[in-house]
Amino acid sequence: MEQPIVLDVGRRTERGRAREFNEDFLGTPEDMGIDPSLVAQKGRLYAVCDGMGGHAAGEAASRLAVQTLFTAYYAAPSPNVQESLRQAVAQANAAVYAAAQADPAKQGMGSTVVAPVLQGDQVTIASVGDSRAYLVNRGGIGQITTDHTWVQEQVAAGVLTPEQARRHLYRSRLTRALGGKPEVQADLFQERIAPGEALLLCSDGLYGPVSAQEMQNIVLKGPTAQAAADRLVTLASRRGSDDDITAVVLRASAPAPVAPPGPRLPLLGLLAALAGLLLLVLLCVVSISALQSILPAIPGPTPTAIRTLAQPVATTTPVSPTVTRAPITPTATKPPTITSPSQPAPAPTLPIVPTLPPPQPTVAPSTTAARALVRASPSAIIRASTTTMSAKLTAVPSGQTVHLLEQNVSGQELSWSGYPTSNLWHKVEWDGYTGYIWAPLLQECQVDNHGRCM
Predict the structure, then answer these.
(1) What CATH number matches the domain at 6-253, 3.90.226.10, 2.80.10.50, 3.60.40.10, 3.40.190.10?
(2) Cβ neighbours of residue 313 under 8 Å, at least 6 residues apart?
(3) Distance, CA of 291 to CA of 425 (rounded, Å)
(4) pLDDT tens for residues 376-422?
(5) Residue 211 and residue 63: Cα distance in Å, rounded?
(6) pTM above threshold 0.90
């Protein structure tokens, strides 16, 4: 039983260097305009013909042979592929012979033919002359057809070796061709092509200058069948083939797997399911409407505003932002008065999350180390040593507002008014400059009668 395959088709023909006309002609179902329904019924026919006869006779012979072959094969009433193909070759021979007899200028014209029909993986090939069909796979390349030439008969008789026949002067002398006689007998071959394999159809203009091994590599390694056909013809042309060059590459692959169809509900069952769904939706709507009319309205929760702070917020008891600066003389007997901060107001009920990062500190223009004295409560002094206003300190009781009064060696007074310590940054104003100290490095100390840490 035939197995389905997918064909990738490539074809190309080119005039030889010593030819005035391209006497090769090829045919595919698409090129010949065959009805796709006929192709599906009778299989895919391909053909390569190499005409002969000089001047325009060879070109006319190959074209007429291909056209007659396709018309006769797809018009044959027999469902048998071999019988239909044999009759089609006979009609092509009769057409070429009649044309040669009707025109004295075309006396002696004729053509070869190699024509496979593919139905699934089954291949039936008809051959007359020396155009060839090869089966190509990873294991090698094998010639399916037999050349109808004088040198091939000598090889079969053991007179010549295949290599001698390849180079012999009479290697192109045919013993059988379309149009030479009123009747001709075609050789028929049966093959099977598997996914990953390919058929190569070609005229002697290709297999003369290109070796079998080269043809195998190009056919299998080309990205597409068309790329392989193009490369084969180009290679033969570059090597100086005098004959016309034709290649048809048919690469087989397995068809894509088809997902099994899912279960299908009968039409009546589908309509019943749809009606049930609509009924369920209607009942839900009616039930919701009834509940809304019976139950009293339930007030929703009162929304509570959430405040996002862009700047630190002071406690409820206002605190003076700075301590008044006054010059302090070295002989002073009374220490500067440090005002005790007021007690903080109760914490708000909603969390307050600052949304801005702490300001970057400004460095004071003095290089003299300073001792910061901070009163955090009436009985405690917070101390930190720093060389700049950007010192990083550790914890101060949450919710405290702190103040700083400082005296450095030059007698200048440093004052500091702070934010609530939950912010952890404290503003320092000194000699007209403003900076910030990071609270977490502050530590507690005892003060002497002059307000200094001991």
Answers:
(1) 3.60.40.10
(2) 352, 420
(3) 57
(4) 333 333 334 334 333 333 333 444 444 444 433 333 333 444 444 44
(5) 28
(6) no
